[in-house]
Amino acid sequence: MAAPEGRDLAAEIEALAQRIAEAKDYLGIESMRARGAELERQAAAPDLWDDPDRARAVTTELGRLGDDLARFDSLTAAVDDARVLAELVAEAEAGGAPDEGLAKELVTTVDALGVRVAQLELESLFSGEYDDRDAVCEVHAGAGGTDAQDWTEMMLRMYQRWAERRGFSVEVDEATPGQEAGLLSATFIVSGRHAYGLLATERGVHRLVRMSPFDSQHRRQTSFASLDVVPFLDDVSDVEIDEKDLRVDTYRSSGAGGQHVNKTDSAVRLTHVPTGIVVAVQNERSQHQNKAKALQILAAKLAERARAERQAELESLGGERAENAWGNQIRSYVMAPYQLVKDLRTSVETGNVDAVLDGDLDAFMEAELRRMRGA
Q1: Does domain 4-125 have CATH number 1.20.58.410?
Q2: What does pTM read for this prediction?
Q3: Where are the beta strands (DSSP E) in the chain?
């Protein structure tokens, strides 16, 4: 079928159908259906909620499987609908009365199908044990003084905007203000399907080049900030934390993370002395709540450390720790003398710096996912 823009849309539809058929195999759709049926039987058991933790696990898994299968089935149905539309366009052309509106609708339909199939294929890249979990993230200012601290705050906003775009939620649990502007560090939790799998691709040092707003002569300044990410684990009961190994400091909540600032020393900072891991939380209403959340984050970090040690490679989950300065950046954000964001691992780049800083990060994340998985 000769189509607008010189495209053979019927052939494109069949190519998309073939990609969906291949995805059905490597995503294990039939196994998912069998697992879903088993979970439905478990969910229907009258004694399910006698064990609330198990009940939540069953219903959560069932919900996610249901969403995945519904998305796949919807996509296969959409391909069938596209085939029908293509036949109508072909019939109109064969009858000597091409329907321009119908032809444009077909182009739009095929383009949208291509995007949806690409998203389905992306699912196969989330092969890590914890890729579907929420993510505990930390941003830290590196070399660059006040500019680096301002860049750290800009990065926090960038990931907040990215999360909003995907419908994820973000909870800022602690933020330490910079001496003059910005942030020295911040801890935040991103909640959503595959939050950890996606954000793990952003782990590392990020470099910003711009005309400094903090320099009286407005000279170009290079500054650095880093992102660290670990999976947030709902069940950390198997992580033993000896109270004797903890140093607990309390202080008054302040800054971007303190939504419920009050006059008491409700913020909590935990230092795990054997490992040197520090966790601070100031976003909850009471010292008790802040300590409970800090313990949960600490447990996730300790679990991460244990996994990395067992696998004998720190970067497997916890990530390779590099100096937060020159020569270690994973991505450069250049705002002067030209506009360019370039990932140094995948070579993906764009000149729309403002869009990236406003959370348009998916292209970078997906490219790094493919590189990591060898896809």
Answers
A1: yes
A2: 0.78
A3: 134-141, 169-177, 183-191, 204-211, 220-232, 246-251, 267-272, 277-281, 329-334, 340-343, 349-350
